[in-house]
Amino acid sequence: AEQLDSVLCTMSEAFFDYGSDDETGQLPSAPAPPFISFLQANTATPVLLVCVGPFASEWARGTFGLASWPAIGTISFEKKSADIVAGPHAVVVTCPFAIPDSDANATVAEIFKSVSPAQVLILCEKSASEYITAYEEPLPALRWIATQGFPLTAPCPPITIPNSASGLAAAALLHSQRLAVPAAIAMCVRPGAPAMRHVGPEDFEVFVPVLALLQALPTQAPREHLVKYLSAFKRDENFLYL
């Protein structure tokens, strides 16, 4: 409980530290906030799966075949869009791009206006260069934090202080806690951008332990999907990994 409170406190502080543009104290100009549209409202679901970042999003798309799931909504931000899809046992948000901390709370609040989950599972990622640890370990690695009452036993070691999630992932966990909805974050600590060019489909298996919570979802072998994604990633010299 102390570990969770400390991590949540770190996340909360991030949402109120916007900084200033110059010595006059003026805030920098910000892009238009994300726009969220839903085709249907009041969707009740056993699980809301929120996938933040390209690594987590592509794993979910390949594993669950999300391209065939009906869309119920869209998140649009700076000419990019993220799908919100629904099946009989889950609603899934895949957001491969970053949403600023200053907009993340409002974005999650809009999602919860139209989706009523029994529990929330958040998959996110962080570069190893941004994750503070006292020892080296094989990458990618999975780390975990959960609120009280979450039904899945921790499938991996915890997220250690002073590390924390940010953006959409942190907002989703904090919002779930405020609504007393059990929630958890599974964070993939992945190689940095240069090393990502050596990542193969097998490295995405870091998320496999969370399938224990998603047993009702039909799965498929994601390898072909991930091979195509990684091939495109490695061909694009201008691609900046988040």
Characterization of the model:
The chain is α/β, with parallel strands linked by helices. The protein has helices at 2-14, 54-64, 101-114, 167-178, 223-235, and strands at residues 35-38, 43-52, 71-77, 80-86, 91-95, 115-127, 141-146, 183-190. The chain has an eight-stranded mixed beta sheet with strand order 1-3-4-5-2-6-8-7. Helix 2 packs antiparallel against helix 5 (223-235).
Keywords for this entry:
26% helix, 8 strands, single chain, globular, 242 residues, disordered C terminus
Topology at a glance:
Blueprint: H1 2-14, E1 35-38, E2 43-52, H2 54-64, E3 71-77, E4 80-86, E5 91-95, H3 101-114, E6 115-127, E7 141-146, H4 167-178, E8 183-190, H5 223-235
Parallel strand pairs: 2-5, 2-6, 6-8
Antiparallel strand pairs: 1-3, 3-4, 4-5, 7-8
Helix pairs in contact: 2-5, 3-4
